[in-house]
């Protein structure tokens, strides 16, 4: 398939419960079963976020970027196109998915499935920043980046190729991951930054989610479900520790 200058794509990086370890740092403190429950709820919320994004812009194509090659046809990943993450470390897998999807679309966004609270308006902003249609080329950033509080990023995207070496030179799971990625991308084009947020990797992150005061009417039902689950989990654990 050739590149379609009218369309963009969003690829959601996922692992399949039962086939890969899920949210291992979270599981260390809340247990494997609860961590898997969170992940399933978070995937559902992410699916809903992306669905709203596609409703807003039907030219966008959603993909599941699946960690396990033998899970490409898994029932959990129905409803979207599928692409394999490929082999190697995170940098190699990010590079593989980005390059494969960009072959078919004018831009691509890469996101995880562990930021269920993220306003889908952030994703809309990311897509609009990269879209070339109706904008002079000089006004369109080449990349977008959404930082996490821990120094990582929750979304990265672009409308031009990124050398594999860039993905490989960035230190992941570090306090300066987003800084290093931005510095590397700036060598090739302008980077638009999105509002800072966080993803859920640890019990501390889960507490942060549970302590946010949301206007629940602004949440999608799937986001509300994971938010209420987080509040219940953290409340139950606090009660158990107090006994």
If you had to describe this structure to a student in words, what would you say it looks like?
This protein is of the alpha/beta class and 243 residues long. It has a single domain (4-237), classed as Spore Coat Polysaccharide Biosynthesis Protein SpsA, Chain A. Helix content is 42%, strand content 20%. The protein has helices spanning 24-30, 32-56, 90-102, 120-130, 164-169, 177-185, 203-211, 221-242, and strands at 4-14, 60-66, 81-84, 105-112, 143-148, 153-158, 191-197. The protein has a seven-stranded mixed sheet, with helices on both faces. β5 and β6 (153-158) form a beta hairpin. α2 (32-56) crosses α4 (120-130) and α2 (32-56) runs antiparallel to α8. The protein is globular and about 50 Å long. The N and C termini lie far apart (61 Å).
Q: Order the strands across the largest sheet as they lie in space.
A: 3-2-1-4-6-5-7
Number of domains: 1
* CATH architecture title: Alpha-Beta Complex
Annotation, overall tally of beta strands: 7
The CATH homologous superfamily is named: Spore Coat Polysaccharide Biosynthesis Protein SpsA, Chain A
Count, helices:
8
Question: Would you kindly provide a brief summary of this structure?
Answer:
This protein is α/β, with parallel strands linked by helices.
